[in-house]
Structures are given as structure tokens and as C-alpha cells.
Amino acid sequence: MNKGKSECANEKKAAPREEPDNGENSRGPQARAKGLARLKYILFLLKPCWKYGKMFTLLTLVNSAVLGPLGSVAGALLPKAAIDSVTQQKNAQQILATVGLYAFVLLAVNVVQLIISQSYTSIAQNRLYYSILFEVNEKALNTDFVYYDNPEFFTQFSYAQQYYPSQSYTAISLIPFMISSLVTSLAMGAIIATAGPVLLLVTLSFIIIQTLLQLPLVKKNADLSLQLTEWSRKINYVFRNLQTKENTADMRTSKAGEKLLKSFRSAIKGMNDANVKYMRSTLKYVIPQSAIGPLQTSLILLYIVLFVIDGDMSKIGLYASLTAATSTLSSTLSNLFGNVSSVFRSMVYGERIAKFFETVSVIEPPRIGALPAPGGVYSVELLNVSFSYANSDFCIKNFNLSIAPGSRVAIVGENGAGKSTLTKLLLRLYDPDEGKILINGRDIREYDIHALRLHIGIAYQDVRILAMSLRDNLTVYRDASDEELHAAMDRLGLSPVLERSGGSLDVQISREFSEDGIVLSGGEAQRLALARLFVGSFGLLLLDEPSSALDPLAEYRLMQEILDKSNTATTIMIAHRLSTVRSFDIIYHIENGAIIESGTHDELMAARGKYFEMFTKQAENYSKP
Q1: What are the Cα distances from residue 314, in Å, to 84, 93, 267, 318?
Q2: N- to C-terminal Cα distance for the chain?
Q3: 3-state helix, strand, coil in the chain (%, to 5)
């Protein structure tokens, strides 16, 4: 006999479950890199940019490494050329030619940059953003269901959604910007060195000081963003609840709404506290930074006037160019060293985003050599299956069950007994800790699980209808003709829905995105979810309280339809209303993850055990006036 809940809990603590070995897919996240090895996270951020935007990457490189420096050099030399032309008493035509040459270079650079920016960059950025975001969501969909029991996974998921696209764009900008800064700095340095070498030392000194003040802020910024992401998740949870019609009634008829708003206020306070803490910790770096700019400008101006010009008015043009060159050099070097800081910052972001993508999934990733889904009706066996959830006392221990092809099996028991857990194991949303689950005599892990699931129809008690068209909702297992879809809806009593839609299968369900959308009642939503099972072709049906929103008479009629359909598929029904399973071939009564009795309805009633007690109690409730 299976062991009880407390013994399961003790065994689980003594022997924590491990992920099964699945070759290449079972590699865990790599040990955190240190030092220069962390540059791999820059490459991680760059990868999607090259993957989704090769031309965008190349144009960004050309724009930053060639056009930017060219414009800076022309802008620095233009004042000297213009003023020198005047002081040297050149004629108007020569002055115009000189100024025109530099102006033409500046104009050409600006026009080309503007054309790239307006005609391509914004479009490419948008495409890159959503391509990367799609990759994040695709990764989440292909991540094992077990991670959804872990709040840390949702934090990593939210962090990747929020920062991966922007940080990838930042990373692709870093390299060309650093090249541009380096080339521009060399050019400005050459201009300055010809007349005022000391200016180089002054400018470099200020930039080094500024960089030293910026570096401590890198990790603080990344830590703040992580904290704000966690608080944002709580705020978004409140938003989702207040935007769901089914929840808003509860908000108005209890204190649930007040509690949600209290949670919202708490999250806002948490965000504000995090920002205040960040501000206080960075103030000692920010104040000196704000003083560097004016001090640097004053010292450079004073040096040029006293030691470079030194009363020689013919050097006014040189003064203008040196001023522009030192200003450009200062801002460029700031950008250069700032980009070095951005490299470190991107490594921090990249490492945290990579945690999400390093999540090891055993079940969901496609596997070479997996068996195709078998056709026909399925047999099901659970052999010595043990399973437990993380941070829970519940477990299934040494569970055995054998279901013949075409059988109609009911699983009953109180809430928390393990009924729904069995359906998740049969869908391979989880793998057992021990034991095997066999479909048609083969271990379920040998099959292509995505193909197999399309042959396992599932109807949940908690129905989730998509805010999409009626057709999309009906064809989640396979595409079907209009005639098939109409027949399935008619069989499930959904003709009134079709009438409200004017007979169209393309009408939107819910009004989330369309004012003309159809709003379904709870019973209609459950019928629609069941209608999907009449469209697909299944070897196994899993029904988890699929008619809980219906009245007893409607439920009885619906069960007759289900049982007719189940003649071509093995059917496992999870039930609380025992009246719905009286005609099933065999009924298993589960308690604490163990089968405590089994048999037909008549056999279990004759045994006068727990099933008899539950059925009698429910019958009394129905018979009371």
C-alpha cells in the first residue's frame, strides 16, 4: 500500500529530487564567470543583433566608426579655418571656398546619418526589439513546467522580457561607439598636441577622475533594476486581476479589492524605498561628478588664454579650434570611458538575462530520435511512480495503475488527494521522481512529447478561453472544416453562441480586443473547451472536472456526449460530483496520493467505504428540500 503524507514528506527532505539525466539537455547553468571571462555575456547580448539584423549591425558600425569621427574632425577644424581666412585677409571667394568645404563635409555627414536614421534604423530597431522579445517568450514556452513553481523563474523571465531587447541594442552600439570614440580622440589629440600638449594631460586627468566616480555606479544600477523588476511583477499582478472581469466581481463584493490595492501601495512603497536607497548610496559619487564639468572648462579656457594665445591675436583661430577640440576630446573620452563602464554594466545585465536562457529543460526541448505519437486508442500504465512538489508535503509514492485501451476510468477523492497531479504526469508536464509511465507499453519519455500531447485531449475545470476567434479556440488541437466545427458546437449545445455571432466562426471571443466580441458564460466556456475534444482525434482523454459550471441536468446530458465520444478513446475522468461517474468501467478513490479503494460504482457502494460515505453525503445534499 502507498505510504501516507507525513512519511512522503520525511523521505522527500532526506532525498531531494534531481533532474533526470538527458544527455546534452541536462547540462546545468555554467559556473558564474569572473573577470574578463565575463565578456562572454557581451557576446551573448550581441548574438541576437547579428541573428536578426545583420545590415543594421553593419550600418551601425559604419555610422559610428566612420561618419561620426569625420564629422567631429570637420567641426573642430572649421572655426580655425574660417577665422584664419579672415585674419590672413583672404578674399571673399577664398573664405567661402574654405568654409564651404568644411560645411559640405558636415552637411554630407549629417544628411547620410539622417537618412540612415529615418529610413532604416528606427524600423530595424523595432524589428530587432520584437524579434528578441519573441525569442524570450519562445524560451519561456519551451521551458519545463516545473520552473513555474519557482518565483525566481518569473523574476528572471520578467527581467529578460524587460531588458534583453534594450541591452542587446546597447551592446551592438558599444563596439562601434568605442571605435568611433577612439578614432575621434586620436584626431582631436593630434589637433591639440600641435599647440597645447598640456591640454591633453589636463583633459585626460579629468576623464580618469570622472570614470573612477562612475564605475561604482555600474553594479548599483543593475541591482536597482533587478529590485524594480520584482516590484513591477507585483504591480502587474494587481493590474491583471483588476483587468479580469471574473475577478472584478469578487473585488467589489469583498475586501479582496482593498487587499489588492494594499498590495499595490506596498509595491509602490518598495519601489520608492529602493530608489531612495539608491539615491543616497550614489550621492557621494554624483556630487563630485557635477563639479567636474565646470572646473574642467574653466581650467582649459584659462590655459589657452594665458599660455597658448598669450596676447597674439593672430592665434584667435587656433583658440577657437583648440576650444572645440578639447571640448570634443573631453566629451569623446567621457563617452569612451563611459562605454567601458557600459561594458561592465552590460556584462552584469547579460549575466542576469543569461540565467533565464541557461534554465535547463529536460521535457520541452525537441529531442532527436524521439518516437512519433502512436495512433489509435491508448493503454496507460503507471509503474511504481513516485512524485513530490518542491516545498510541499504532498507526494505520490509507489503508485501503480493499469488502464486498458478504450476503458472509461474515473478518479475521485477530496481536494489535494493527487487527482490533478496524475493528469499532469500523464501529460508529462512533470516527470516522476521514480518509476515509469507507459503509453502503449512504451515509456512516455521515449515519445515526441509535443506530438503525443496533440493525441491526449484535456479539458480542465479552470477553463482558459483565448481572447481570439471562435475558430482559433476550437482548433487548438488540429485544423478542421467549418462543417466539423459547426457539428461539434451543435453537439455541445453551443448553437446559441453561433446565433449571437451571426453564424461566423471568426468572431472574437471576449471583448478584450474587439467591441463586437462575444462574452461567454461559465457554462458556455466549459462547453467550448470540451468542443475542442470533438474536433481532434485522440488516443486518450483527460477530463478534470470539465462540467463543474453546469447544472446537474446539463451536466448529465453533456456526460452522455462525452461517453459517446470516449468509445473511441481511453477516458480518464477527475470528478468531485460522484453522480457523473456512476457508469464508468472502474472508479479509483485516491487519498494522500494513494489508491484506497477501487471498483465499479455498485461494488464501491456495496463495500460501504469512503466512496460510499462521499456518495451518500452528496446524494443527501441533492435530496434536501
Answers
A1: 8, 21, 65, 8
A2: 41
A3: 65, 10, 25
CA–CA gap between residue 353 and residue 29 (Å, rounded)? 12
Please check whether residue 489 is in contact with residue 531, taking contact to mean a CB–CB distance below 8 angstroms. yes
What sign does the dihedral 317-318-322-328 (CA atoms) show?
Answer: positive
Q: How far apart are CA 236 and CA 230, in angstroms?
A: 10
* Cβ proximity of 455 and 491 under 8 Å: no
DSSP state of 371: B
Rounded CA separation 443/510 (Å): 40
In DSSP terms, 381 is beta-bridged to 402, 438
* Three-state SS sequence of 460-510: CCCCCCCCCEHHHHHCCCCCCCHHHHHHHHHHCCCHHHHHHCCCCCCCEEC
Residue type, 443: D
pTM score = 0.69
What's the pLDDT tens digit per position in 89-126? 677 777 777 777 777 877 887 777 777 776 677 788 88
Of 122, 128, 127, give the one whose Cα is nearest residue 48.
Answer: 128
- Residue type at 539? G
For the stretch 223-275, pLDDT in tens is 777 777 777 877 877 777 776 666 666 666 667 777 778 888 888 888 888 88
